[in-house]
Amino acid sequence: MPVEKTELLKGTLDMLILKTLTCGPTHGYGVARWIEERTRDVLAIEEGSLYPALYRMERRGWIASEWGLSGNNRRAKFYRLTPEGKRQLAMEISSWERLVLAIGQVLAPQPI
Amino acid sequence: MSAMMDRWIRLRSLITRKGVEREVDEELSFHLEMRARDYEREGFDSDEARRLAYKRFGNLGRVRSEALRSEQGRVRRRRWLFFLDELRQDLRYAARQLTRQPVFTFVVVLTLALGIGANVAIFSALKGLILRPIPYPEPDRIVALWETETGHRYYMPFTGPDYFDMVEQNSSFEEIGVYTFRWLNLVAGDEPERIRGSAVTASVLRILGMPPPYGRLFIDEEEKEGSNHVAIISDGLWRRSFDADPNLVGQYVTVNRESYRVVGVLPADFEFPSPWGRAEPVEMLLPLTLPTDGSGRGSHGLAAIGRLREDVTVAGAESDIRTIAARLAEQYPTTNAQVQVWIEPLMRRALGSVTVILMVLLFVVGFVLLVACANVASMLLARGAARQSEVALRASMGAGGGRLIRQLLTESMFLAFLGGIAGTLLAVWSMGALKGLIPSTIPRVEGIRIDGWVLLFAFGIMVVTGLIFGLAPARFAVRTNLVDALKGTGGSRTGGRKRNRMLKILVVGQLAMALLLVNSATLLFVSYLNIAAIPRGYDTEEVLITDISLAGQDYDKPEGRTAFWERLIARVRAISGVEEAGVTTKLPANGGNNSSILVEGETYDPHERRPLVERSYISPQYFDAMGISLLAGRTFEDGEGIASDASDTRVTIVNQAFVDRYWPEGEAVGQLVRHNSEPPAWTATVVGVVEDVRQWGLVHPAIPEMYAPFRINPRNSSYLVMRSAVEPISLAPAVRQAVLEIDPQQPVSGFYTMAEMVKGMMQGRRHYTLLVGLFTLTAVILAIAGTYGVMSFYVTQRVREIGVRMALGAARSHVLWFFVNKGLRLSLLGGFFGLWFAFASSAVISSLVYGIRPVQILYLAGAMLFITVVAIIASTVPALRATRVDPVQALRAG
Question: What are the domain boundaries of chain B?
Fold first, then answer.
């Protein structure tokens, strides 16, 4: 089932990760799986790039981490959204929507 | 608290780079394994699943290193924030502790302030005088050159011809220059002013290398007769007498009644090297015109400096010019057979003995600080015992040993900083007094101040003292056995014993240092008294002096000078209140000039070194005016000594030291003395003997001296000496009037009594002795307080034991003896180390004292007795108090 993959727009990975974490704390692999399922594998995310993004966001205080046990009883690092991360997500979503709207207007068939 | 501890433990696992790496690796491999497992579920075999997982992950190496970098940065920042957080807590805790015990805090801060303040003050003096760079560019290459008798390093000035030969033949110096000092009479306003000037070769200013802000330096041509009427003035004179006129350069000023064109103004921070340690700053420079015909090879009167070529060492340059000196000795045996040369870096000469004094003071204040540290350490140790349960409580709540040490150290650092700040304020406050203590002959005193470096030094000793006095008590506090401490039984036996040993060491150290300091201070004090008691040979209180320098055409010929002095003496003697007045070229205790002579029975030999003899030129009334007694023969008669005919037999008066050297057995009056040359430049008959006057300062023994009638060699600059029947200084207006009546253009500088001059000489030494005494007293008080504190702590610890003994019927004297015995043993031990220090330092001490041997059994015994008494009192008083306590109460109190 070869699906044509779309490159992720720069800067949108953070937004996706933050969005993922709104459903509750999860580990890096969980984030990867969630994005994969929700986008039905359309987005070509190099899974490795998740991690520098996670660390960067933790450093900025948007997310926090804690070691815990995964579903299969293994030690895993769980990330959760901080209040600051929530604000950041809201901001990113609204600016994303403005972008989509603007681009949509450009691409829409012209009336007349 | 426990949430914080969790955070701490977690962070600690991350402290190492390894810890961060391990966590990142664990997280990444978790991801890869999960992905591989999912692939396996989809039906791939395990190897393939693993391969796919890696492929899907992307560039693992890059991701890992990026993640690591990011994570390490985060952890570092967290750790720093956490540290600051803890520090803030510790500081708040420390502040609370210290305000809760204000008396304790006050005593500790005061102790430290004394120790640190003394160090900061002395360091600032050291830095201002010695460590501060001199203003000349590349000052290391500037050296002073001296001639000397062969085999010595005397400070003998240069001669002009020797200087020219050195300039021509040396290969070590960029340049050499010579200069000499002159009193100049400057007319800038209405009043003539007498200022100190210097005649310099053009090279001198080039060697010093400081460009003038206005005008220029001298050029070589200006050393020649005819073009040498140019002047360079100091910044100070420029501001004082010329209103800082920027157009002064090119204008003419009147100096010694002749017109000089000002060609330059020196920079404000210019320091003229004054090798003879005079206080007056040099305010005007004139070109030095030296005879170029080779004459005057025997007359030593020039200071010399040089700038070494790059890569030439002082030793190398010295051996170079010594070769030249050896050549000159062969060429001109009459004058140079016994002349050698040597080199000394410029600054060393300028500061001379002050360096030693400051070093000694620095050592003394160092000891004061050590005593202060020991003192505070013992106070903290003792308090540490009282705080055991508090520390134990914190430990039981999970604070680790390191953490507790840090907390206690923060507290001692906090104390050290309070003490340091108070001490620095103390140093600032005492700065004015400190400057007054330094003899005014020492240059650069104005450079002593509290600046960035001094503050850095203060900060440094704050940290060091905080560590010294804080570390041991902190370690003891933490080692305490938890259970015992919480039970409140006053600590485990072993911990207590160790602490007591530490306290004993501190007491012994303090007593040892107290003994050393008391002994040294006594030696210095006795030495000071010895110096003050040296017989001077002249009167001080009733003798008024003024310096007069004649200048102008009227005084070019000796007759003119003689006429002036004789008229002046006659007029001054007529003033009512003046008992006697005379003139001399040299004051007692103010250095001098000298030459070598031959007496009957000795024959001239240029290669034989003859000891030096002082020479003064005086008017007949000088001895009476100064109060120098005539021991044999007569004084000069008015009109004796004829200036024109030098070959005639002259008359001379010698001092007792002269007689002791040459005719210890026989009669001195009537003997013949001649100059050490062939044919002799003069021959003189001894007509009288006077008592000794110490010409080279108080501690230098009198050397043989010859007095000659001043008419033989009337000088431009001489001292008018008056013996007064009234308050001496009240004579000044009349004397000034007398001078102006003879010559209205002749300036008269200040008046002073011999008492003031001698006091000036003693002042530096008195202040220095006082300062050592003061610091010693501080250290001794601290040591007494420290010993008392430790002994009373020791007794308090045993209050219960005392109670038991007393209850069981022990005699009070028995209990007392127990503690006094302890105190005695400590003082004996302290005394032993103190004696050892005293013997070890005797070599240093002997160079600082006068008229006393550095090891005085009596003083050492006295100091020993002193610390023993201190120890006995310090142990008796608290023990006595303890034995008075009701046994029942004591048992409960335990």
Answer: 2-100, 151-337, 354-533+760-893, 551-745
